[in-house]
Amino acid sequence: MKPVAEQTILITGATDGLGKGVTLALAKLGANVLIHGRNEQRLKDTQQEIQRATGSERLETYCADFSSLAEVRKLAATVQAQHPRLDMLINNAVAAGGRPGDKQRQFSQDGYELRFAVNYLAHFLLTMLLLPNLRHTPPSRIINVSAVGQFPIDFHDSMMEHDYEPLDAYRQSKLAQILFTFDLAEQLKDEQITVNALHPASLMPTKIVYEYFGRTMSTLEDGVNAVMRLATDPKLDNVTGKYYDQQRESRANAQAYDPEARRRLWQLSEELSGLA
Predict the structure, then answer these.
(1) Residues in contact with 26: Cβ distance below 8 Å, sequence separation at least 6, in sequence order
(2) In 3-state terms, what secondary structure has residue 210?
(3) Strands 32-37, 59-63: parallel, antiparallel or unpaired by DSSP?
C-alpha cells in the first residue's frame, strides 16, 4: 500500500462519532482527507477542530445529503473533478434506527425507505461513480462500515411497506452493504482494489446509540481502531471480500453468501440508483 501521508481518502459521514474519529486519526498520519457531511456549518467546525488538533492543512469538506441521489451524483462529480486519483473510500454515513417504539416509515427525497437509501443505496451509487478515481493509481481500498445487527432482505418488499420496524430497516441496510461488498470485491479482484466490510464496535458512545439504546458497551477508540486497521494495515494489501467483527474476520448473515440474493440486490440497486 502507499504511505498514508501520500493518500487521498474520502470518508462519508465524517462530522460526528466514528467518522469524525477516523478522520482525526487519518489526519494525524498526514493523509489528504475529504470530509463529507450534510451540514455546511458542522463540516466547517469539524475541519477547524481537526486542524487545531493535528496541524493538518490537508482537509477538504464536501456537503451532500445522502437522502438525495441527485446530491450523491453531484458529490461524485465534484470529487472526480478535483481529485482524479482517489486512494481510499470509507463508506460510513448512516441513518440510524430511530427511537424505540417509533414505527413511522421515513422516506428519502427519491421516495425510497430512508435507511436503505442513506446507508446502502447512496453508498452503492457513490462507489460505482468513483471507481474510475480508485482505479487511477492502484492499489486502492474501499471500506464499508456495516454492523453486526443484520436483517435479511425481502426482495418482495425491499422498501419494507409491511410490518415496518425502523431498527429492522437499519439492519437490512447494513446487510445490503455486506452483499454489495462481496459482489464488488469479486468484480475488482484483479484490479488491486480491495473491498471489505466491518462491524466497528458495539454500542459506541455516539449520538445515535444514546438515542436508541441509552447505554454504551464499547469505546469510540475501539471502533476507530477497527476501521484504521482495514485502512492502514499493509498485511491486508491483498485481502478482499471479507467481513470483520471489529478486528476479527467473521461470518455475516447467511444471505450474504447467497449468489442469487446478491444478484437480485445488484439489479435492484442499479434500477433504483439509475445506473441500470
Answers:
(1) 4, 9, 11, 33, 228, 231
(2) helix
(3) parallel
Q: Is 120 a catalytic residue?
A: no
Contact call for residues 167 and 159 (beta carbons, < 8 A): no
Q: Read off the pLDDT of residues 42-77 as tens digits, 9 standing for 90 and up.
A: 999 999 999 999 999 999 999 999 999 999 999 999
Query: Where are the alpha helices (H) located in 105-164, listed in sequence order?
Result: 114-115, 122-134
Assessment of whether the complete model's pTM goes beyond 0.90: yes
Q: Is CATH 3.40.50.720 the right assignment for the domain spanning 4-273?
A: yes
The sign of the dihedral angle between the CA atoms of 211, 174, 130, 107 is negative
Amino acid letter, residue 190: D
Q: Which tens digit of pLDDT belongs to each residue from 202-214? A: 766 676 665 656 6
Q: What is the C-alpha to C-alpha distance for residues 28 and 49, in angstroms, rounded to an integer?
A: 13
The helix (H) or strand (E) run that includes residue 173 is helix 166-187
Question: What phi and psi, each to the nearest 5 degrees, are found at residue 144?
Answer: -105, 115
Euclidean distance between CA atoms 132 and 203, whole angstroms: 35
CA-nearest of 100, 92, 114 to 23 is 92
Considering the candidates 62, 112, 120, 170, report the single residue annotated as catalytic: 170
**CA-to-CA distance for 38 and 64, rounded, in angstroms?**
5
Phi, psi dihedrals of residue 32, rounded to the nearest 5° = -85, 105
Cα separation, 76 vs 274, whole angstroms: 14
